[in-house]
Amino acid sequence: MRLCLLQLLFFICPQLHAQVFQRAFSDPLGQYLIARDVKINDSGHIFITGEYRNGRPFPFLLKSDQNGHLRWARRYDCTDTSFFYPSGWNVRPLADGGAYLHTKKEQKTAHLGQVLARIDSSGLVKWAVLAPNTSDQNALELGSDGCYLGGYHRPTENLYLAKINANGQALWQNQYAAGNFDLYRIFAMAPYQSGLLLAVGVEKKQAGGGSFGPNHTVLIQLDANGNVVQKRFFAHLFIQAIRVLPDQRIAFLARSENVDWTGMGVMDAEFNWIWFKDLRLGNKAVVLKDISPGQLAISTDRKSLMTTFFPGGGGRLWLRLNLDGSLLNQQIFLDALFGEGMEPAGNDQFVRLSNLSSDRFLLAQAKSDGSWPDCPGKQACKIVLYDTLFQGSPIETRQKSVNILRPDTLFDQIMPIEEADYCFDPGPLNAEFSMSDSLVCPGSKVQFLRKSGVSPFQFGNSKWLFPGAIPPDGSGAGIDIVKYNQSGVFPVYHIWELAGCTDTTLKYIQVDHPPKVNLGNDTVLCQTGAYELRAGFSPELHYAWNNGSTESVFQAMTTGVYRVTVTDSAQCSLEDSIRLTFVTQASISLGADTTVCTGAKLLLAPKGSNLGLSFQWSTGENSTQIEVSHPNAYVIKYENNTCVLADTILVSFSECLPCKIFIPNVIAPNSGTENGSFQVFSDCLLESAECWLYDRWGNLLFRRLLPLDGRSFTIGPGVYVYRVRATFVNQQQGIETRWLQGGIQIVN
Predict the structure, then answer these.
(1) Cα distance between residue 685 and residue 733, in whole Å
(2) E strand or H helix at 320
(3) Distance between CA 523 and CA 525 in Å, rounded?
(4) Quick one: average pLDDT of 625-641?
(5) C-alpha distances in angstroms, 504 versus 405, 433, 523?
(6) How many CA atoms lie within 13 A of 177 on its CB side?
(7) 3-state SS class at 367
(8) Which of 88, 230, 468, 619 is in the most buried spot, having the most CB atoms within 10 Å?
(9) In angstroms, what CA-CA distances link 375 with 23, 350, 379, 445, 458?
(10) Shortest CA distance to 634 belongs to which of 280, 621, 302?
(11) What 3-state DSSP class applies to 711?
């Protein structure tokens, strides 16, 4: 057996027949399709109007039979394409199978006025009239010998109302004003006795005229000729839906100006409130910011009232009250994304209009007892009706005759519409939810997703609380940006709310402590052999060293940086590193004793000068290298808390016949000739030559032994500065060390 949603959250699908149906209407091209008003004629034919968009907006009109099957669907447009009608606002069916269609006319962003069109039984336009510079969305109602078209007149902001006969001619046109108010908007209209009943919102301009002040309602009764019969002023409340009972009492929906409460009531023919129910779920006020006249309907036997409202937490709540204000029953419906409407359909039944999405709407009919199929799932919390009464006060009104109505033209086009029986299973309704993980690391992100009510439509409202996390709360079916920065165990609350009822599920998430690892500070060692690095030990941890080892202990033997990453079962990782420097006697060796020529300078540096250590010299210096120019025994020493290492070199000086030396100032490394290498030429035997090469800004590029051929160069053409320490064997004086410096040009 399939599950079906007859604008309920879920129920067992009834057999579809003439008394109960459910149709979904959609555009096969997926265009924007929003229904705004539904009405039924005496033959049971259903008329629906609203907005259709296919590149540009159009009003549409749809007609179905009493079982909801489509008869025809048409859209309407201006003959002059520089004008357009953005939406169908209201429809009023006629006994001959046709209808009055109400829309407005615009040119780009300029408002031109509202339009009334007479549509025949096939959806074709018979005539149309324009009321320039007027506008209102609830401004069409049938009269005994024509129809009423109303709205606020933009230049004056006064109320405009016209009575139009079946041929499109105005029987009368009037403007109305009340008290000292400046702006008038029609909230609702209803045929009343031989004339019309209006609920009109009024506002007064603030000092300076830049804005409007508080909102109020004026109830106005007109006779068949448009004259004011009676009026009553209600301060700081909106009466936004009115229906007339057979005994001339008036049923209505109202809310406070600041939206603190919403209610339903009945008043007598003199506008005195007989009873009024402030609708609450427990002590929680029901809020309806915008009430449409279609949210109130009277059963065809005139014994009960029906309304819907949005109580918060998803869904719509349907209420049925008898005429003394007693609650008969209540049920949950689908939460419409846009407008809703209800209309009595005979035999104490109703049809109900809901927009499922921006390209589909639902038309459903109730059961023969005037109720919708029972909902075996979770019911709404019981509604509480608080008795409240408001009394209106007198107000003066003014009226004058005007003549602004003029003919208009629009044409009809067939509109593609598909209909289908509609059933939908929204899934179970509870606050259960899933987490992407229950054991995470500090700084990790966790995703949460509720298990119930996740569907193309919103059923229920999810609220989330995440103590100790960022963010601390959220809403919606899923949350995927929750981050925990501290370790510990944290609760997660998911509160699922529907029509004032709540269900809460509590779960916990553990944020693990990150593993601990400490290899110590960078260390200089005076030893040979291995140095043991310990990253801790636990069979639940995984170790990864930068050389590929996965052991918790590592034997280091050479100078370098050692890095380890420790990961636990929650995939929490922590990294640490240490630099080890091994110093041996060879690291501080200064080489053999040497003799240099008198006047020369000798650079002394240990073999381990690249270790980044500071040495102590017998000259008192603490540097990596020193330069000497006098004979002496020079001592270098390195000392730390584990060892002392030292070396000595004897430097002698003697008179030398200078060696003739030549260094080329231009070389071509890629030429393959004798000019392709960088070397020192001398008439003495060259024992060694070491070169420091700098760029023109003094930055050291490299330090290497000469000679250098073309393959040894990694620098491009340009002018560079060199400094060369050359050691020669002087036949007369022995070993001679000389420092040479100059410029050299490298060419291709």
Answers:
(1) 12
(2) strand 316-322
(3) 6
(4) 89
(5) 59, 10, 57
(6) 13
(7) coil
(8) 88
(9) 19, 17, 7, 39, 17
(10) 621
(11) helix
404 burial via Cβ count (<10 Å: 0-12, 13-18, 19+): middle
Structure confidence by residue, pLDDT tens digits, 8-67? 333 323 333 345 788 899 998 888 999 999 999 989 999 999 999 988 899 999 999 988
* Residue 648 to residues 601, 611, 645, 741, Cα–Cα distance (Å): 18, 19, 11, 28
298-317 in b/e form (b: 16+ CB < 10 A) is bbeebebbbbbbbbbbbbbb
Is residue 319 within 8 A of residue 325, CB to CB? The reply is: no
By three-state DSSP, how is residue 105 classified? strand
Ramachandran angles phi, psi of 405, nearest 5°: -65, 140
Please check whether residue 90 is in contact with residue 54, taking contact to mean a CB–CB distance below 8 angstroms.
no
Residue 387 has pLDDT above 60, yes or no: yes
Among 230-244, 245-259, 452-466, 505-519, which stretch is predicted with the lowest mean pLDDT?
A: 452-466
10 Å Cβ neighbour count for 77? Answer: 17
In 3-state terms, what secondary structure has residue 65? coil
The closest of 401, 417, 428, 381 to 161, measured between CA atoms, is 401
Q: Please give the Cα distance from 544 to 541 (Å, whole number).
A: 10
Cα separation of 85 and 624, whole Å? Answer: 89
Scan for tokens 């005979």, then name that residue.
346
Bond from prior residue into 539 cis (ω within 30 degrees of 0) = no
The verdict on whether omega for the bond into residue 491 sits within 30 degrees of 0, i.e. cis, is no
Residue 599 is predicted with a pLDDT of: 75
Tokens of 658: 């200078």
The DSSP string of 444-481 is -EEEEEESSS-SSS--SEEEEE-TTSBSSEEESSEEEE
Quick one: pLDDT band at residue 458, thresholds 50, 70, 90? low
For residue 662, is pLDDT > 80? Answer: yes
C-alpha–C-alpha distance, residues 6 and 729, integer Å: 109
HEC profile for 535-568? CCCCCCCEEEECCCCCCCEEEECCCEEEEEEEEC
> Rounded to an integer, what is the distance from CA 542 to the centroid of its chain?
39
Alpha-carbon distance of 608 to 587, in angstroms, equals 4
- Residues 626/642, Cβ–Cβ less than 8 Å: no
pTM over 0.70: no
C-alpha to C-alpha distance for 464 and 453, rounded to whole angstroms: 15
Say which range, 322-331, 421-430, 576-585, has the weakest mean pLDDT: 421-430
C-alpha angle 251-254-255 in degrees, rounded to nearest 5: 165
Do the Cβ atoms of 452 and 42 come closer than 8 Å?
no
Tokens representing 65?
């039979």
Task: Count how many Cα atoms sit within 13 Å of the Cα of residue 407 in the half-sphere of its side chain.
Answer: 5
- The DSSP secondary-structure symbol of 707 reads P
Distance CA 298, CA 248 (A): 13
**Furthest C-alpha separation in the chain:** 141
The residue among 63, 179, 44, 38 whose CA lies nearest residue 121 is 63
Q: 437: which strand partners?
A: none
- Residue keyed to tokens 């007859």: 6
Instruction: Read off the pLDDT of residues 596-621 as tens digits, 9 standing for 90 and up.
Output: 777 778 889 888 777 778 889 999 99
Residue pair 331/499 in contact (Cβ under 8 Å)? The answer is: no
Instruction: Give CA–CA dist 109/322, Å, rounded.
Output: 46
Residues written for the chain:
748
Q: Which residue do the tokens 């902001």 mark?
A: 157
Give DSSP secondary structure letters for 144-156.
TTEEEEEEEETTT
Q: Are 315 and 460 in contact (CB under 8 A)?
A: yes
Q: What are the φ/ψ torsions at residue 257 (nearest 5 degrees)?
A: -60, -40
Which CA distances in Å does 506 have to 340, 404, 464, 492, 495? 36, 65, 10, 6, 9
Strand, helix or coil at 193?
Answer: coil
Question: 10 Å Cβ neighbour count for 329?
Answer: 13
